[in-house]
Design goal:
By secondary structure, the protein is of the alpha/beta class. It has a single domain, classed as Rossmann fold. Helices cover 36% and strands 21% of the residues. It has eight helices and twelve strands. It has an eight-stranded mixed sheet, sandwiched between helices. It has a two-stranded antiparallel ribbon with strand order 3-4. Strand 9, helix 7 and strand 10 form a beta-alpha-beta unit. Helix 3 runs antiparallel to helix 4 and helix 4 crosses helix 5. Bound molecules: 1-O-pyrophosphono-5-O-phosphono-alpha-D-ribofuranose and uracil. Uracil binds next to helix 8.
Amino acid sequence: MRFARVWAARLARSCTASLQGKGNSAICGLAASAAASAAYVNCSERSTVQCNSAFQPKENRKAEVLSSPAISMLMSVIRDKRTCQADYVRAADRLMAILAEEGIARLPCVKPQVIQTPCGPFKGVTAPDGHTICAVDIVRSGGILLEAVRKVLPDLKTAKILIQRDEETALPKLYYSKLPDGIEKLHVVLCDPMLATGGSALTAIEVLKKAGVKEENIMFINVVSCPEGLKALAKEAPGVRILTCGLDSHLNEVKFIVPGLGDFGDRYYGTAGYAQGFWGTNGR
Ligand code: PRP
Ligand code: URA
């Protein structure tokens, strides 16, 4: 009940803030994307494992924002507040499958190699060895993305870090972590769908660094990011690579991403918001 009350108050405040002070948030988001797309990665300047359907945002030089027609289509479904839970879960899972593949293909253990097709040589890349990789999720929503990574490489190692944002202050609280032995020697893929203030990701990165993992060996994959989160990581963890499907406009006064998609975990798991009519109003 308390949760529902907090949510109702937060949503009401954030809608008012959007309408009053921030102008048209969707247009802001598009403007941010357009500005950032000026910095599109030139394929010929990058290693063969990079694709040109990504750009590097100015807020964080270690970040790449993926872009493709499939990503735009799936992002539109999960951003749309009318989307019901079943459609949300289906679209989010499809999107995360793409993000997982793109993240794994960017790991440094994927190297150029010439392979032989039945008809001749081809300049390709190696497939990564799951034993050299550890996927880490920030529980709860990070687990959804982690499962997408584990589908690609079922034999990788897995770590769990339970961090929750305080509903009032948006500050992260660390509850639990379980990391595999030898994690300091592995490539780490940190999974969490949302990069808002960056507090949760930085708390998780701190746990990993205490265990001996170097920032350079961490790739943080997420679905939606914002300038505030990218800047926080550039300042506090400049060696960490970031791969995201969206760079939005800004955070609102209750630290939700605008335009964003609302609460990723609540929409995926159905824990809050549907009964209140915040989302899922297409009724299916
Ligand atoms: C969400 C999200 C991130 C965090 C991002 O988690 O999954 O972990 O917020 O916000 P930040 O960048 O400001 O830290 P939340 O704590 O709401 O938990 P959930 O996964 O259970 O929904
Ligand atoms: N967590 C979410 O689920 N959404 C946001 O916009 C910010 C944090």
